[in-house]
Design goal:
Elements lengths: L5 E6 L5 H8 L5 E6 L2 H11 L3 E5 L9 H6 L5 E6 L4 H9 L4 E4 L4 H31 L1 E2 L2 E2 L3 H13 L5 E5 L6 H10 L8 E5 L5 H9 L16 H4 L4 E5 L6 H13 L1 E3 L6 E3 L3 E6 L3 H6 L5 H7 L3 E3 L10 H15 L6 E2 L1 H9 L5 H15 L4 E2 L6 H4 L14 H15 L4 H8 L3 H11 L20
Helix pairs in contact: 1-5, 5-13, 13-15, 18-19
Bound molecules: adenosine-5'-diphosphate (ADP) and magnesium ion.
Length: about 475
């Protein structure tokens, strides 16, 4: 295996300087490129993505200082060179993020020492990244990644259950991977070559849902002009995935139970029964036990479904999975968007770790996907993350003033609402306040304050526990 080659880009009018560098760096695994002016420098930078740029300080001036372009790439070391460093010039260069300064004429031993140091750092980074990638591979399961004890337990359960199950229930908050688990169960089952059909029970009205699931005959209801098979018939011999089963009406629950117990199906409006052979996987983000105790979910159906139950934990309860998931999505999106991203800055990682992830893995996926679009260099930096995640630090050193508590609250509310598709009940649950409080906060944000309402209500008065 040959050593990896690092690119060193020298941007300088002086033609002879490349030869000086060549001599100084003899034997090191680097290739030296020279650009004679700004434009060439930028084009070489874009084409070769060098790890190091040595820039003549005089070429750094201009409308957009070259340095600003490079400063956006934190995987890049930028060294400025000049024959006359003034104290202010040197300080300014350092403030703009130059990794080092060199004085001309260049001293070969100094140049060599500097570049060797950068190579050593880059090697360490590359090694860490290889280890990360190996770990990622080892922790893959059916398109999912995870290494937390909880996820490993889930993977192992799926492996054991898949060859045998007839019905299964998957529970967990939204965005935790319920659908992926359902697909894994199907893919590892003897029916993997048959259909896997998905129905989201929360997306349709009661009548439409029943007709969608069980089919109907002509004239069964207004608009039923033809006989139509439902998803149970369509998925026959395969697997049907019923998402958000907690939304199913009691009547539909009764029909479902009958199919599970006797494999008998009646289309809506028809006395005729047909036989179907279905593996059923149901999922819900609601507490079905509680629904049963309230009489909203049939107990017999619940017992039937939950003989095999797979519970997915919120991401906040398995943060060890975060780095792996981040790397997984980083790889996915950088391929998708044709970028050469290979890491996440330490600062960005800290922000990601501190975040509470109310939207779970789906939220993380969105955040990394957006950051991949925003990222300009080879790594994702804190600037590339959405404001709601950066806000946690609310640092004044970036020129932004501290936010007031009310502003933080309002930002956070907006963020959580976005993650739950504007569902105020879910947002209230996540934030630990009543739904009324959410409305008060929203009203206050648009300046529509009801002054009769005590303003403290949003912050404290009805927190749970
Ligand atoms: N462990 C995981 N590894 C990789 N991707 C995951 C994982 N869990 C969830 N995802 C991704 O997160 C998103 C939400 O998952 P999904 O199965 O639709 O969640 P749910 O059905 O619980 O709302 C999907 O894009 C899915 O691919
Ligand atoms: Mg889902």
């Amino acid at each position: 295996m040959s050593d990896p080659v690092y690119f060193v880009l020298v941007i300088d009018h002086d033609v002879g300087i490349a030869a000086d560098f060549g001599r100084a760096l003899l034997g090191l695994p680097v290739a030296v490129l020279r650009a004679g002016d700004r434009a060439e420098g930028i084009s070489f930078y874009r084409e070769f993505l060098p790890q190091m740029v040595l820039l003549d300080a005089e070429l750094d001036d201009g409308e957009v200082p070259l340095h600003d372009l490079f400063a956006n790439d934190s995987a890049l070391e930028v060294v400025l060179m000049t024959d006359r460093w003034t104290q202010t010039g040197a300080l300014a260069a350092a403030a703009r993020g130059a990794s080092d300064l060199l004085t001309k004429p260049l001293e070969p031993s100094k140049v060599r020492q500097l570049v060797s140091g950068f190579i050593a750092q880059a090697e360490t980074r590359r090694h860490t990244q290889e280890l990360d990638n190996e770990l990622l591979e080892a922790c893959q399961f059916q398109g999912m990644v995870g290494r937390s004890p909880r996820m490993l337990e889930v993977f192992s359960r799926v492996r054991r259950v898949a060859p045998l199950f007839q019905t299964a229930l998957i529970t967990g908050p939204t965005g935790t991977g319920k659908e992926l688990i359902a697909r894994a169960l199907h893919n590892l089952s003897p029916r993997s070559r048959e259909k896997f059909v998905v129905c989201d029970c929360s997306a349709l009205t009661e009548t439409l849902l029943e007709s969608q699931l069980f089919g109907h005959v002509k004239g069964a209801f207004t608009g039923a002009t033809l006989d139509r098979a439902g998803l149970f018939e369509y998925a026959n011999r395969g697997t049907l995935f019923l998402d958000e089963i907690g939304e199913l009406s009691l009547r539909a629950q009764a029909k479902l139970l009958r199919i599970l117990q006797s494999q008998e199906l009646q289309r809506v409006g028809s006395p005729v029964t047909t036989t179907v052979d279905i593996h059923l996987i149901a999922a819900t983000n609601r507490d079905v036990r509680e629904l049963t105790s309230k009489g909203q979910f049939r107990e017999d159906l619940f017992y039937r479904l939950s003989m095999i139950e797979i519970q997915l934990a919120p991401l906040a309860d398995r943060k060890v999975d975060l780095p792996l998931l981040q790397r997984h999505f980083l790889q996915h999106f950088s391929t998708k968007y044709g970028k050469r991203l290979n890491g996440i800055s330490r600062r960005a990682q800290i922000l990601l770790t501190r975040h509470s992830w109310p939207g779970n893995v789906r939220e993380l996926e969105n955040v990394i996907g957006n950051a991949c679009i925003m990222a300009q260099g080879k790594i994702i930096r804190d600037e590339d993350l959405p404001e709601a995640i950066r806000v946690q630090m609310a640092r004044p050193d970036r020129g932004a003033p501290f936010m007031t508590l009310e502003e933080v609250q309002s930002h956070h509310l907006e963020y959580v609402l976005k993650q739950v598709d504007g569902n105020k009940a879910r947002a209230a649950e996540i934030l630990g306040v009543s739904r009324a409080t959410i409305y008060v906060m929203l009203a206050r944000r648009i300046g529509n304050v009801c002054h009769a309402m005590p303003l403290t209500v949003a912050a404290t008065s009805d927190r749970r526990g």
